[in-house]
């Protein structure tokens, strides 16, 4: 999945129904509100609640800094 993929505007977190952000490597979508990462497998986002991974606070803070710095879409 690429940052300019129009599908990104349609995808939502299965838990809070809010928008997701694509991580820099393109291998996962991230919900900063719930600190959950959803993998992208063979180009298909895995958006089942059970597919999401809860991130540790330090990883969450690192991603937030990247979002603010423009390093993550």
What does this structure look like?
The protein is α+β, with helices and mostly antiparallel strands and 73 residues long. The protein is built from 1 helix and 5 strands. A hairpin with a 4-residue loop joins strand 2 (28-31) and strand 3 (36-41).
Distance between the termini: 12 Å
Q: What's the number of helices?
A: 1
Helix content: 10-25%
Largest sheet: 5 strands, antiparallel
Average pLDDT rating: 90
Q: Which sequence of SSEs, written as H and E, runs from N to C?
A: EEEEEH
Write the layout of secondary structure elements.
Layout: E1 21-22, E2 28-31, E3 36-41, E4 44-45, E5 53-54, H1 57-69
Antiparallel strand pairs: 1-2, 2-3, 3-4, 3-5
Task: Give a brief rundown of this model.
With 73 residues, this protein is of the alpha+beta class. It has one helix spanning 57-69; strands spanning 21-22, 28-31, 36-41, 44-45, 53-54. The protein is built from one helix and five strands, in the order E-E-E-E-E-H.
What attributes characterize this protein structure?
73 residues, alpha+beta, 5-stranded antiparallel sheet, 22% strand, single chain
């Amino acid at each position: 999945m690429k940052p300019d993929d129009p599908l990104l505007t349609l995808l939502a977190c299965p838990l809070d129904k809010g928008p997701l952000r694509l991580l820099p490597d393109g291998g996962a979508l991230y919900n900063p509100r719930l600190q959950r990462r959803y993998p992208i497998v063979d180009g298909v986002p895995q958006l089942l609640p059970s597919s999401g991974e809860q991130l540790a606070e330090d990883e969450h803070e690192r991603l937030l800094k990247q979002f603010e710095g423009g390093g993550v879409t």
